[in-house]
Amino acid sequence: MSVKEHEAALRSYDEALSRLYGSSVSTLVEPGGDVPALADVDAALVEDALLESERVGDTAAKLLRDDDPSVREMGEAQLAALAATDFAVAVDLAAQDEEVQASAKLALPQARGQVAFVLDADLREGTPVDGASARRVRALAEGDDNTPAALIKTVDAAFDTVRDEVEEVIKAGAKGMAEAGLDAALGAAASGVFAKLPDNAKRALRWAMGWIRKGVEKLMKLLGKEALEAIRKWLGEHGIDAVLDWAYETKDLKAECAERVQGASPDKDFAAAGEAIQKVVGKHGSQKKVILEAFKWVGRAHKVLTVLWPPQAPLIAGAAYGVGVGYGIVSGGDYVDWRRFEDVKVLDRVAGIRKTLDTALA
Fold first, then answer.
1. 51-99: pLDDT as tens digits
2. Of 221, 203, 76, 48, which is closest to residue 213 (Cα–Cα)?
3. Average pLDDT of the residues in 266-279
4. What is the pLDDT of residues 316-350, one digit of tens each?
5. For residues 209 and 263, what is the distance between their CA atoms, to the nearest angstrom?
6. Which of 250, 280, 269, 256 has its CA nearest to residue 150?
7. Burial classification of residue 132, based on how many CB atoms lie within 10 Å of its CB (0-12 exposed, 13-18 middle, 19 or more buried)
8. In angstroms, rounded to a whole number, what is the distance separating the alpha carbons of residues 225 and 221?
9. Cα angle 267-271-274, degrees, rounded to a multiple of 5
C-alpha cells in the first residue's frame, strides 16, 4: 500500500509543478535548449504545489518503514531527491523578486534532471547503483579473484570508499555552515530555525521560505531530532576531521570482517561476495550524489535569501546543510553497519557491508 500511495503522491507532485511552471516536468528536464523563465506566477498554484510537496514527503517517509528493504532504501533516496527539488523551486520563486538577479535558466529543471535517476526509478528495485563508486572499490581492491585475500581487500576498500564519500558530504556541508558557525547551525536545525517572517515580507520571500521549509522537513524525516542532537554532540566532542574515525570504527570493522572471511568455508563464492559488496557501496554513492545535489540548491537559496532576508540567511542555510551533514553521517554508518545504532536510535534501513558479507558467506 505504501508504494502505490507514494507513486500516486509523486505523480500529483509532478503534476502540481507542471501547472506551476506551465510545462510538464518531463518536458522541463529534456536535455538541450533554453528553458523559458517562470513568469506570471499564480499564488494559488504555488500553494497547491506546496501542499503536494508536503504530501509526497509524508508518503516517502512511510516507505522508510516498509517491510521490503529495497523500498526502504528508495524511501531514503527519494526524500533526499525531493528535498533537492524543493530547494530548487524556492530559488526559482525567489527570483521573481526584482531585487534578485535571476539565473538564465530555471533551477527546477536542472535539479530534477540530476535526481531523475532516483525519482523515476522503480521503488521495488532499491537504490540505483552508482557505477563510479562500485568501480572505485574494485580498483582499490586491485582485482576480484575468487579468493579470501581478494575479498578482504574488497571489504577494506568498501569501508574506505563509504568513509571517503561521507567525508565529502561533511566538507561540503561544513563549508555551507561556516558563516553561521557549525554548532549554531546544528542547534538551529534541531530546535527549529525558521524565525517568524517579518510582517512586511515580500511575496517572493514568503514563497521561497515555504519551499525551503519543506525541503528541510524532508531531510529531517530522514534523520530525526534525536539523531541530529547526537551528531551535534559528536561533532562538538570530536570535531569534523575526527568524527568519522570515532563513529565508524572502521579499523575494528575491517578486522572483524577479515576474521569472518578467513573463517569461511573454502568452497564459498568469494568473488560473488565481493560483487555484492561493491553494489552496496554503489548504492551509497547514489545517496551521496543526491545529498550533494540538495546542497547545491541550498547554496543557491542562501544567495537569494541574502538579498531578501539578510539577517536570517546564514542560519537558515546553515540549518539545511546541518541536517544534510547529520544524515550523511548516520546514513554512511548504516551502510557500514556501524555499532552506534543505540546512540542515534534510527537508521537500520539497509543491508550494509557487514550484513552483506555475512549473508554471502552464510
1. 999 999 999 999 999 999 999 999 999 999 999 999 999 999 998 888 8
2. 221
3. 94
4. 999 999 999 999 999 999 999 998 866 665 667 88
5. 56
6. 269
7. exposed
8. 9
9. 125
Closest CA to 218 of 50, 44, 58: 58
Where are the alpha helices (H) located in the chain, listed in sequence order? Answer: 2-21, 25-28, 43-63, 69-94, 107-119, 131-141, 148-177, 182-191, 203-223, 225-248, 250-262, 270-308, 313-336, 341-344, 353-361
R_g over Cα of the chain: 21
Residue type, 137: V
Whole-model pTM over 0.85: yes
| Residue 280, helix vs strand vs coil | helix
- For residue 98, the tally of other CB atoms under 10 A from its CB is 9
**Lowest-confidence range among 194-198, 218-222, 246-250, 258-262?**
194-198
Dmax over Cα atoms in the chain, in whole Å?
Answer: 73
